[in-house]
Amino acid sequence: MKLLMSKKSSGAPSELKRISALRFTAGSASLLLLSLMLVGCTINFGTSGSEDEQGTTGNSTIDSSQAFSGWDIMFAQMMIPHHQQAVEMGALAESRAFSPDVKSLAAKIQAEQSPEITQMTRWLNDTNSPLDMGHDMNMGGMLGEAEMQALQDAKGPAFDKLFLEGMIAHHEGAIEMAQMIVDSNNSEARALGEAIIEAQNEEIRLMQTLLAQS
Fold first, then answer.
1. Pick from 111, 160, 181, 197: CA 20 to 30 A from residue 60's CA?
2. CA nearest 135: which of 41, 37, 27?
3. Contacts of 207 (CB under 8 A, 6+ apart)
4. Which domain holds residue 67?
């Protein structure tokens, strides 16, 4: 499968929003340079082969309006490890959380984000794209090693507080990252971005309530 990003003069606000999301999620100058290269360009990923005007590669015909764009693929490469950490945090809550509400929320996060990891991994596999961007990134809201260790070492109400504080920031980073794909031409990518924003905004409100009660 080939990925296409077509040049659209009317899409400038969307591109600026996507670059803003990258600036928030990854403080890497090289990643920001890559984002600027993506704007207004046609980018081809995946298998080699001739492409006709309808987006045909080899023996498969691709609807260019539904193809995964460079932004969609970059989003998946960034969001997969972001989601993986959220799932890991949720797993810690099973044996460490004190509040039943925190345990329930953690299980919900795992149930939501594990299938999304599978979904985004499929995008990358189907387009012959690498599972990562080939360099370290500091995605917005992700916990550092010391913060994850502190979470692993905590139990009871202390764990609940660290979990809620960490997951609120984690969700805020994910929401910002999802802005990269809410205007995607690919309906699956667009739907995932919208679902992440809706679900995680709702969970942030719940976590803020739980934190205020702790």
1. 181
2. 27
3. 105, 164, 167, 168, 171
4. 2-213
